[in-house]
Amino acid sequence: MFQDRPGWQKLKLRHCLKLSFTSISSLDHVRAFSQTVARSSFYEQNKRGAEYPVFPLDKKHWTQHILDGAKIFVGECKLFWEETKEHFRNDPPIYQDGDTKVIFRFDSKECLEKWSIGSDKINKEGFSDCNFLINDKGKGVFHGTVDITPPKDGRNRFAGYCGIKSIRKTKSFLRDDWYNWNAFTHLEMKVKGDGRNYMININMGMYFDITWFDMYTYVLHTRGGPYWQVVRIPFSKFFLTYKGRTQDKQDPMPRHKVNGVGITAAAVSGPFHLEIDYIAVYRDMSHTEETAYEMYNMPMQIVTA
Question: Domain NADH:ubiquinone oxidoreductase intermediate-associated protein: where (predicted)?
């Protein structure tokens, strides 16, 4: 989008001269601001990761973006007004023991707008492929094929993953929002599996970039056959991971900062098929465990990854 505007190359040159004291001949080696390859081990420029561009390629003129924004402006104002009324009403729901709150119910094609799919084939990192749809019985179907064969591109040594993920929860004007699950103790799902194990991922909506990729994960064990199963997983069983790596130091899940839910099929080659009726949260007052894992402080000389 920005590269097509007049004077872009001149602006880029001026920007590089301000940020670098190198010679003019070294300006060709300065990366564009739209690339997100991190220069340090901590800084993250984009919530998608360092290997993805901040600004996707977009051929729309800037006037078209203004027109697109005007189309949703009235709807966002109405949503903001409803949020304001809800804030001053200050009447949060009260949940009792045994209550269930459905977060996602897959009974219509409209619910698919709240979800996105991903695989190594989509990201040009492998050959796994998947799809997420609503069948004729009004149930969500996550299906595809996992292929752990890595591509011969010299960059990726491992491959083989497919996943679905709910889009980030937002308020009016695309501001970040969170699910507050402090009143609940379990994640509940009604599924019909194929005997394969899946990973359930709960994404956190943290503020600082070092916590953008914090995620709590647990295994979903499915049974093969024609029968539905209701699975309840305590939040205390979910373990903290960062970019797919289990952390040595575990912390209880901050259930008031949940930003999304995902399901991943990986590691084992072959087809998979998972039907989903709903995803909900469940309250069990007899469950008082905060975390199922050891809570200890690592010595200062040991660096955890």
Answer: 104-276
